[in-house]
UniProtKB/TrEMBL annotation:
Enzyme class: isomerase
Lineage: Bacteria, Pseudomonadati, Pseudomonadota, Alphaproteobacteria, Hyphomicrobiales
Protein name in the entry: 4-deoxy-L-threo-5-hexosulose-uronate ketol-isomerase
Molecular function terms, GO-annotated: 4-deoxy-L-threo-5-hexosulose-uronate ketol-isomerase activity; zinc ion binding
Cofactor annotation comment: Binds 1 zinc ion per subunit.
Gene, per the UniProt record: kduI
UniProt binding sites for Zn(2+): H192, H194, E199, H241
Pathway: Glycan metabolism; pectin degradation; 2-dehydro-3-deoxy-D-gluconate from pectin: step 4/5
Family matches, as InterPro entries: KduI, KduI/IolB_isomerase, KduI_N, RmlC-like_jellyroll, RmlC_Cupin_sf
Function: Catalyzes the isomerization of 5-dehydro-4-deoxy-D-glucuronate to 3-deoxy-D-glycero-2,5-hexodiulosonate.
Similarity comment text for this entry: Belongs to the KduI family.
Organism: Devosia lucknowensis
Enzyme Commission numbers on file: 5.3.1.17
Length: 274
């Protein structure tokens, strides 16, 4: 069996505020997404977003159903985006091969029955949410993404946000990638919340000894998690999600929920954070 999953329940703000380091990590950190020759899923109760990893390591890996979806096929009632954070690979969808280069994303619509993740050296970060309509499979590339340049060198938050799904027809998934100017380490500062959508972050391109201090919690009750290379964070709809790295990094952000409006977020005034 090359597919495995675990389940994360939805945690409320009061419960999260009472947690120590181990409990926070068990509930909000995913530190074992990528294993050679395996598809691994974390099925969450936040908007039923599933966050996964697929590392083909030679033979292509099939997308297999997991019990929590309650369907015969994984994508019977879901859509999926695979982000390649490794070397070039190929994803076959119902017999059609799609070349997926480094930092490319492939959107796969509801109803695709036979999906295979391939490519020696490819490493796929997977995001899947329930769908209500079938949209065409489509390759999304950084060059075609909507780019937002934010922040400044003075505040160590100069960065470019690439909205890969800006003109994509999806049911719920909104996904992009954020990269930094050299020396800038703060993401999503000023911070925000968006109660209509949960969010997941994957931090990658970190040096082995580097980490991101990720901040979560309600704006006036924050907690932190130390996050290493290729680890992911689940952000409940009520939580801020931001962080500062000890060195350079890149991250992928992904949302699912009641709308697909990137701008539907409430900025937290800097003086309100505590
Ligand atoms: O809801 C949007 C997400 O949190 C990210 O797009 C934020 C981000 O990449 C950043 O400000 O650095
Ligand atoms: Zn956000």
């Amino acid at each position: 069996m090359s597919t495995d999953f675990d389940i994360r329940f939805a945690i409320d703000p009061g419960t999260a505020a009472a947690m120590g380091t181990d409990e926070l990590r068990e509930n909000f950190l995913i530190d074992d997404l990528f294993a050679a020759g395996e598809v691994r899923w974390t099925y969450t109760h936040y908007d039923r977003m599933a966050v996964g990893g697929a590392v083909p390591n030679g033979a292509p890996l099939a997308l297999e159903a997991i019990k929590p979806t309650g369907t015969a096929g994984f994508l019977d009632r879901r859509e999926l985006i695979a982000v390649n954070i490794g070397a070039s690979g190929t994803i076959s969808v119902d017999g059609t091969d799609h070349a997926v280069g480094p930092r490319d994303m492939l959107y796969i619509g509801m109803g695709a029955a036979d999906v295979r993740f391939g490519g020696a050296g490819a490493k796929y970060y997977l995001l899947s949410a329930p769908a209500h309509a079938s949209h065409p499979t489509r390759l999304l590339q950084q060059s075609g993404a909507k780019r937002l340049d934010m922040g400044s060198a003075e505040t160590a938050n100069e960065r470019s946000i690439f909205q890969y799904t800006n003109d994509l027809k999806s049911c719920q998934l909104v996904v992009g990638l954020t990269q930094f100017a050299p020396g800038s380490v703060w993401n999503t500062m000023p911070a925000h919340v968006h109660d209509r959508r949960m969010e997941a972050y994957l931090y990658f391109d970190l040096k082995p000894d580097a980490f991101v201090v990720h901040l979560m919690g309600e704006p006036d009750e924050t907690r932190h998690l130390i996050v290493r290379n290729e680890q992911a964070i689940l952000s409940p709809p009520w939580s801020i999600h931001c962080g500062a790295g000890t060195g350079a990094y890149t991250f992928i952000w992904a949302m699912a929920g009641d709308n697909v409006d990137y701008t539907d977020a409430e900025k937290v005034p800097m003086e309100d954070l505590r």
